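Order emerges. One example.
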Amino acid sequence: MIILAINPGSTSTKVALFENLEVVFTETIRHSVEELEKFESLNDQIPFRKELINDILNKYDVKKDKIDGFIGRGGLMKPLKSGIYEVNDLMEKDLMSGELALMHLILVVY
């Protein structure tokens, strides 16, 4: 089983590919403040980071249709029990709306 793990942080994007329990590769892309300042919101960074991830997959000659699963960290979602979830329209709407960003900000401040 081939799994692509993506960890989009505030100043980096980490990408790792696993085949079964073996690490195939890991990459960390650092983002400067100046580089990220040109984006008005986190959602505006999506095409930028997606292109960087695609560049890494191309570097290692990884075909997306050969990846069995994706795992990611991040995103502002309604509370969920831990586990595996299939991405659906409602989940995408929650993530892209930014509606939960204010709640997250309030929790971080307190």
In short: The beta strands are 2-8, 12-19, 22-30, 69-72. The CA atoms of residues 11 and 76 lie 17 Å apart. Confidence is low (pLDDT under 50) at residues 102-110. Residues 76-110 form one domain.
